[in-house]
């Protein structure tokens, strides 16, 4: 008999995270130095703050150092839970956002029937975290987000526009693997996971780190469809 998690298709996929967490352990708070301008991220978090009642539960998937998003949401009176694959990032988030609760976990751990059950949330944010997955896993991660959300839940997502799958790149003195979509395909993948895109913005961004290339960042604000 299949487990609930297998119904999403995780059971047939090898979950290869080799080197990903270690890279971000090594990067530490240099990540915030390399990406000092996060206007799109801040604006999407402001949309959630305007849209949610005080005390609403928000999950920050791939919370990193907790800055700016988890801190911004926590200071606005929301109940923030963050998860990240990197022990180092989780430690920094706990230091930077004392009002939040942070766990070392993989998004696949949160799937229906998975080993980590954090309950349901009024909103989920995934800022540049799903791009760390191979393309085959991104639709499964989106269905996991759908599962984690309350019926009227909100979802804020950002990705870098790029037609790549599990592609190795230099990144702040280390190496990571990233995936992405061109804009129209990203919309299709998100909508196929039962989300309604209510707003879209994009930014052309040049990080301050010499080994990180300029990029187009796409931000989607979504509602959960039943």
Portion of residues within helices: 25-40%
Q: H/E element string?
A: HHHEHEHEEHEEEHEE
Mean pLDDT: 86
Number-wise, the strands total 9
Low-confidence stretches: 1-5
Secondary-structure content class: alpha/beta
Summarize the biggest pleated sheet: 7 strands, mixed
Describe the protein in words:
This protein has 226 residues and is of the alpha/beta class. It has 7 helices and 9 strands. A 7-stranded mixed beta sheet has the order 3-2-1-4-5-9-8, with helices on both faces. The N terminus is likely disordered.
Give a brief rundown of this model.
The protein is of the alpha/beta class.
Describe how the helices and strands are arranged.
Layout: H1 20-27, H2 30-34, H3 39-51, E1 57-61, H4 69-75, E2 79-84, H5 87-96, E3 101-104, E4 121-127, H6 138-148, E5 149-160, E6 167-171, E7 174-178, H7 183-192, E8 195-205, E9 215-224
Parallel strand pairs: 1-2, 1-4, 2-3, 4-5
Antiparallel strand pairs: 5-9, 6-7, 8-9
């Amino acid at each position: 008999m299949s487990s609930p998690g297998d119904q999403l298709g995780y059971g047939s996929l090898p979950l290869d995270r080799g080197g990903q967490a270690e890279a971000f352990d090594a990067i530490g708070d240099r990540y915030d130095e390399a990406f000092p301008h996060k206007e799109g991220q801040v604006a999407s978090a402001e949309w959630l703050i305007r849209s949610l009642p005080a005390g609403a539960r928000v999950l920050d998937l791939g919370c990193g150092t907790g800055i700016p998003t988890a801190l911004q949401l926590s200071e606005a009176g929301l109940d923030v839970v963050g998860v990240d694959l990197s022990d180092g990032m989780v430690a920094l988030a706990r230091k930077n956002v004392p009002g939040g609760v942070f766990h070392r976990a993989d998004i696949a751990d949160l799937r229906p029937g998975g080993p980590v059950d954090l309950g349901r949330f009024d909103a989920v944010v995934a800022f540049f975290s799903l791009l760390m997955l191979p393309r085959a896993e991104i639709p499964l991660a989106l269905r996991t987000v759908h599962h984690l959300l309350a019926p009227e839940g909100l979802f804020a997502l950002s990705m870098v526009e790029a037609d790549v799958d599990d592609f190795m790149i230099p990144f702040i003195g280390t190496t990571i693997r990233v995936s992405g979509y061109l804009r129209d395909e990203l919309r299709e993948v998100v909508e196929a996971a039962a989300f309604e895109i209510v707003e879209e913005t994009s930014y052309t961004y040049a990080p301050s780190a010499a080994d990180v290339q300029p990029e187009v960042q796409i931000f989607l604000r979504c509602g959960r469809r039943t």
